[in-house]
């Protein structure tokens, strides 16, 4: 029996787009890569790209978005911020944040990537604010989390696991 479904299977289109974007950003730079280039490399249409990602720069933040979703789920179970961060750090110790942070220069990323970073920091602050942290510590805690993640991302080949960096900031 033939399938009525056309095109690339749904689960692989997202991954194909992520991989294509990463390759093209490293090969040609972020600024010199278009959504059409990414879609063509992934073997999907431009419309398919926008079914998965609202902007070109959003494709760089997929791993971070997954980690934020997981943090929200963990906090929703009643776990403390420290416990939740520990669980997320263990589960997402290898997300694409190191690539965007360590390869930003090679990718020639632009202002829209910084804008996307700001959106994620605000999402993180909202999650921190919804935890057991006192209101006067929300931004300092958010800053410490971001700082630990950046240290982890920029540590290079000697990088230890993310829990190490969160622990050094006394976050877990």
TrEMBL record:
Signal peptide range: none
Q: Which InterPro entries match?
A: DNA-bd_HTH_TetR-type_CS (IPR023772), Homeodomain-like_sf (IPR009057), HTH-type_TetR-like_transc_reg (IPR050109), HTH_TetR (IPR001647)
Residue ranges annotated as transmembrane are none
Q: Which PROSITE patterns match?
A: HTH_TETR_1 (PS01081), HTH_TETR_2 (PS50977)
Keywords per UniProt: DNA-binding, Transcription, Transcription regulation
Q: Which Pfam families does UniProt cross-reference here? A: TetR_N
Does this entry carry the keyword Transcription?
A: yes
Spell out the molecular function terms from Gene Ontology: DNA-binding transcription factor activity; transcription cis-regulatory region binding
**Gene3D superfamilies, per this entry?**
Tetracycline Repressor, domain 2
Positions of the HTH tetR-type domain = 11-71
Name the chain's protein: Unannotated protein
């Amino acid at each position: 029996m033939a399938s009525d479904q056309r095109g690339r299977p749904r689960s692989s289109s997202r991954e194909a787009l992520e991989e294509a974007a990463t390759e093209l950003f490293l090969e040609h730079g972020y600024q010199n890569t278009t959504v059409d280039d990414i879609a063509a490399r992934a073997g999907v249409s431009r419309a398919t790209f926008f079914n998965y990602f609202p902007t070109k720069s959003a494709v760089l933040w997929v791993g971070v978005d997954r980690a934020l979703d997981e943090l929200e789920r963990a906090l929703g179970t009643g776990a403390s911020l420290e416990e939740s961060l520990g669980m997320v750090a263990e589960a997402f110790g290898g997300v694409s944040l190191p690539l965007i942070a360590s390869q930003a220069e090679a990718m020639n990323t632009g202002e829209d990537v910084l804008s996307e970073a700001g959106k994620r920091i605000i999402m993180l602050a909202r999650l921190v604010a919804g935890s057991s942290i006192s209101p006067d510590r929300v931004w300092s805690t958010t800053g410490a989390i971001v700082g630990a993640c950046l240290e982890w991302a920029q540590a290079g080949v000697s990088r230890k696991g993310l829990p190490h960096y969160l622990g050094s900031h006394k976050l877990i």
